[in-house]
Amino acid sequence: MTVTPPPSVHHHNPGFLALVNEARARVREFSIDEFVDRLQRGERFVLLDNREDLEWERGHLPGAYHMGKGTIERDIETAIPDKTAPIVCYCGGGFRSVLVADSLQRMGYTNVISLDGGWRGWNERGLPTVVPKDESR
Predict the structure, then answer these.
(1) What CA–CA distance (Å, rounded) separates 90 from 123?
(2) pLDDT attached to residue 10
(3) What structural domains and CATH numbers belong to the chain?
(4) Residue 2 · residue 95 · CB < 8 Å
(5) CB 3.0 to 4.6 Å from 55: which of 51, 86, 121, 132, for a disulfide?
């Protein structure tokens, strides 16, 4: 059996994209601009970073909590027992967060949103970030 290592550039395979698109049909999404507008109007959300540990350590959105895609289903009910809490999930580009949001909805969470564009979209707009063991950029 031959295993091909994943490419270093973000390339999404067809099966993954099909899974994301199927989940996307069931998940509410905010654009980066819509999310920022809502925050500026005073709306409050629990912001969950669903990226891998190493991604989180390189930087994250201000006010975010880290609950990676690999463990969130195990830990979410302890961390956020209120299943009506407004939750915004984000990842690197908005694909994994759609899958997380879909999973949380299946667990009974009723106010889960995926941030379309994720970390990359946030950074492309020059919005503030937090770098652990460093200062905010």
Answers:
(1) 13
(2) 67
(3) 17-124 (3.40.250.10)
(4) no
(5) 51
Question: Contact 63/47 with Cβ under 8 angstroms?
Answer: yes
What is the token pair recorded at 92? 């690197």
Whether 3 shows a pLDDT value over 70: the answer reads no
Distance from C-alpha of 103 to C-alpha of 73, rounded to nearest angstrom: 8
Choice between 85 and 135, residue whose per-residue pLDDT is larger:
85
Q: What pLDDT sits at residue 135?
A: 46
Query: Do the Cβ atoms of 93 and 67 come closer than 8 Å?
Result: no
**3-class state of residue 113 by DSSP:** strand
Q: Over 80: is that where the pLDDT of 40 sits?
A: yes
Give me the residue label for tokens 């390339």: 11
84-96 average pLDDT score: 97
